[in-house]
Amino acid sequence: MFGTNPIAGLFGRSPFGPTQEHMKAVMKCVGEVVPLFEALMAGDFDQVEAHKRSVSEFEHEADGIKNQIRGHLPKSLFMPIDRRDLLDLLHAQDSIADTAQDVAGLVCLKKLEVPAEFRDLLVAYVLRNLDATLQCGKLISLLDEFVELGFRGREVDQVEELVDELSVIESETDDQGDELTRLLFQLEEQMSPGTFFLWYELFQKLGDIADYAEDVGDRLRLLVAR
After folding, report:
1. What sections of the chain are H helices per DSSP?
2. Rounded percentage of the chain residues whose pLDDT exceeds 90
3. Which of 10, 98, 136, 148 could pair with 17 in a Cys bridge, judged by C-beta atoms 3.0 to 4.6 Å apart?
4. Structure pTM?
């Protein structure tokens, strides 16, 4: 998708281009979680497996970009962001994709039946975690512009506004996750221990997607403050 020397070419345009390309792969990875759960709720386990493979492919794509960035990033960069800060930001982004892959793996451990009691809330939960990732992507898509303008004036306000919106989304996913967990405990006696703990872990992992997205936003907020 990038040509023969993708990261070198991206660095030629902007030192932040590769980080933005990595975020695009992360968003594709999380985006695939939505149809994965749709297939799960439809009981189409062949499609569940297919979407799991797609998640893994996008996570592998993100890993490839991450490794190329690490291999090509100079030891010192003459720019307003420290090399270590840029790598930390990359790591936070990568954690989102890793968690999406974990979620897909858990879904495929057994043929889960989605209880009617939390189907609607589960759909909303999955979509809201995707919203957090997309909001994170919006921030990263503007990274080079923010840095070029020196994080001054309106640019600082825009970063703060986007990060605040991301924090609101993450808080909403916390509430949704708590509600799903309460419903799960109400249904505990109707499930095998294995199924109960699998759902519990799934809810926790799904919420981690928004948590890591917020972590990216917090790191950008710190960069603005420096």
Report:
1. 6-13, 17-31, 33-42, 45-72, 83-107, 119-141, 143-148, 154-186, 193-225
2. 70
3. 10
4. 0.89
